[in-house]
Give the backbone structure.
Amino acid sequence: MKTYAAVKDMRVYFISEAEFPCLPEEDSQQWQQRAAADLIERYVPGIDKGFHNGPYGKPYLNDGPFFNVAHTHGAVLLAVSEYGEVGCDIEKLDRPCPGAERFMQKSERGMNPIQAWVRKEAVAKAAGKGIFRLKPEMIDVSDSQTFCDGRNWQLWDVDIPGYAASIASVLFDDVDYSDGKWPEKYDDRDDVEDFGGLPYGRDKDYCSACGPCGDLDDQLTDF
């Protein structure tokens, strides 16, 4: 598991299947749900008190931080912020992307289509409406800042080998956004192994915060 250096009070977490193995009876989607729930239980304060869903399905806490989770084959990404709304997305870089011209603006045509897509989805998730309600072709992600759904958003690309990953956040007043890159990662394995005395914090059947892991796995979606 990797924790990425914080910007202001926002932090990003990434876990791969190599570090958090898939169980024999799990398919890829089940693994993604279990890994996402595991990260959220450990790094979203107040999640044990339950969460709500916004009008378009985005999870939120009444008194806790803003958070968003994304998952794809073999990987889960989590962004947590006390400051304001946040969205994230991750996809494998080698994923086929047919018909990319349908959702890319002219200013984006030099971009990797997968990178453009995860930026667009991160913005749409931060806005709380999801990519298809906001129309991806209408979100311009050719720069590190964009305007969408009545607000300005900062885009951050997260360097994860083999994946395209992006974070969208509200703008901070005193942060240098010049390169649009999330700060360098550091390994947080010691912290992870100390959680609950078990590697990655729990076994298959029980979650220390929420009881049976299905309770949270089944409720959380990639929004």
In short: The helical segments are 28-43, 113-126, 131-134, 189-194, 214-217.
